[in-house]
TrEMBL record:
GO biological process: one example: negative regulation of mitochondrial fusion
GO terms for MF: oxidoreductase activity; zinc ion binding
Range of residues in the leader sequence: none
Keyword Oxidoreductase on entry: yes
Listed GO CC annotations: mitochondrial outer membrane
Gene3D superfamilies noted in UniProt: Medium-chain alcohol dehydrogenases, catalytic domain, NAD(P)-binding Rossmann-like Domain
Name the UniProt record assigns to this protein: Enoyl reductase (ER) domain-containing protein
Ranges where the Enoyl reductase (ER) domain occurs: 54-381
InterPro entries referenced in this protein's UniProt entry, alphabetically: ADH-like_N, ER, GroES-like_sf, NAD(P)-bd_dom_sf, Quin_OxRdtase/zeta-crystal_CS, SV-ATPase_mito-regulator
Source taxon at top rank: Eukaryota
Alphabetical UniProt keywords: Oxidoreductase
Length: 423
């Protein structure tokens, strides 16, 4: 999407965590609206700012002063929930090319309420519940965005769901239907099937008759992905997913969605049936820890999939690349997809799965949660989560981790006892 927004205003010198910034524009200071301006000047709002590339601590909470004012074609939105994406983790490490120079407020999707209209905006009203899509800058309590980057939410949709829908479902939809041309009785391999895009893809596959869905995920998530609609869950961490898939379908699959890159793209291509389609849309293999790993970058580059035009002709397969961040000027294309998705949502055919919600103050924990592969579905950030809810959230996180450790200890004990008995 174009960047004539509040997001672009982030490209400013760094600020201290507690230091406030003036966000109001001088031209807004008109004597006729003195009272409003005074109120606006007293406003403060939270913003999550990436100040340098690196670990979880590089995204910091800033308190900004003044109310951003929408310019021509923009609306001011009070943000209630924000979606976290894998790309935000890559951005933190300096591996995402769609960001301006630092410091910058991260976040490419959110949901909230329209508070003010800029000049010329006729398609939105104050009080509208909207979802917002932008290249960056949406992890803020207040954002100014072009009105055509906002989408009206159905009344029954929660802000958390609204913040979880756009990036994941647009991506999955365009891969499966625009590129993949998914048809009844076909088969699909969905990598990262328990994640945000993975969950969306599985639900969308289920809207087509008799589609066989192979889904890779950590073993502990298999029950969840089965419930979501995966026909054959595969534990890619302890088994070779190619072998596992071929045991069930010797000929392979019709579509592979590849968010991994590196050597996995080649494996995915080889898994295609004749006339099959591979859609490459990510490079998750680049992420091996908190910080950028040059070894992983080199390995991925060295193992990169490459094919000549003649080889492609002989293969009878299609290879496509998809990047939503590079479709930001394609407003009509995206709007049509969103309308289709909202129709599916209202009919109960798709429903974003919320894994967890974190207050802005715990953005580091939220990033760690996603990167340590603990999520099933979407991770959401809340700008103003009530204190009690935030504390409960933190305690539940600690309890979940403790439960996991206890379960692992119990498993290890059983294994040790079994070994002892064998000996
Ligand atoms: N091109 C585009 O326009 C576009 C748009 C959206 C997303 N994407 C891509 O789609 C993929 C999924 O994105 P998402 O936002 O929905 O995230 P997500 O799937 O929720 O990401 C987290 C999950 O990915 C799995 N995973 C696999 N490799 C991982 C790694 N190296 N580090 C951490 N987790 C890893 C883990 O699940 P398991 O435990 O099950 O392995 C983890 O729980 C990413 O590659 C992303 O870049 C691309």
């Amino acid at each position: 999407m174009s960047t004539g927004t509040e997001a672009a205003k982030e490209n400013q010198p760094p600020t201290e965590e507690t230091k406030t910034e003036e966000a109001i524009k001088p031209e807004q200071q008109n004597p006729d609206v003195e009272e409003t301006v005074a109120a606006q000047r007293d406003t403060t709002f939270k913003s999550l700012v990436l100040s340098a590339h690196g670990g979880y601590d590089k995204v910091k909470l800033h308190i900004k002063k003044g109310c951003p004012a929408p310019t021509i074609g923009e609306v001011l939105v009070r943000v209630k929930a924000c979606g976290m994406n894998f790309a935000d983790l890559m951005a933190r490490q300096g591996l995402y090319d769609r960001l301006p120079s630092l410091p910058v407020s991260l976040g490419m999707e959110c949901a909230g309420i329209v508070e003010q209209l800029g000049e010329g905006v006729t398609d939105r009203q104050v009080g509208d519940k909207v979802m917002v899509l932008n290249r960056f800058g949406l992890w803020q309590e207040l954002v100014c965005v072009q009105s055509n980057h906002t989408f009206l939410m159905p009344v029954e949709m929660s802000f958390e769901e609204g913040a979880a829908l756009l990036v994941n479902y647009i991506t999955a939809y365009m891969i499966l239907f625009n590129f993949g041309n998914l048809k009844p009785n076909q088969s699909v391999l969905v990598h990262m099937a328990a994640g945000g895009v993975g969950t969306a893809a599985v639900q969308l596959c289920k809207t087509v008759e008799n589609v066989t869905i192979f889904g890779t995920a950590s073993a502990c998530k298999h029950e969840n992905i089965k419930q979501n609609g995966v026909s054959h869950p595969i534990d890619y961490r302890t088994n070779d997913y190619v072998e596992e898939l071929r045991k069930i379908s010797q000929k392979g699959v019709d579509i592979v969605m590849d968010p991994l890159g590196g050597p996995d793209t080649c494996k995915s291509f080889n898994l295609l049936k004749p006339m099959g389609k591979l859609v490459i849309y990510g490079a998750a293999n680049l992420l091996t820890g908190q910080r950028k790993n040059l070894m992983a970058l080199a390995k991925s580059w060295w193992n990169q999939f490459s094919i000549s035009a003649m080889q492609l002709i002989h293969s009878n397969k299609a290879v496509c690349g998809f990047h939503l961040g590079h479709l930001d000027e394609e407003i009509d294309l995206i709007s049509n997809v969103v309308n289709t998705l909202l129709d599916l949502y209202v009919k109960g055919k798709i429903k974003p799965r919320i894994d967890s919600t974190f207050p802005f103050e715990q953005v580091g924990d939220a990033m760690r949660h996603l990167q340590e592969r603990k999520n099933v579905g979407k991770v959401i950030l809340i700008p103003d989560m009530p204190k009690e809810a935030a504390e409960k959230n933190a305690n539940e996180g600690v309890k979940k981790d403790a439960d996991k450790v206890a379960k692992k200890e119990a498993r290890d004990e059983t294994k040790n006892e079994a070994k002892k008995e064998e000996n």
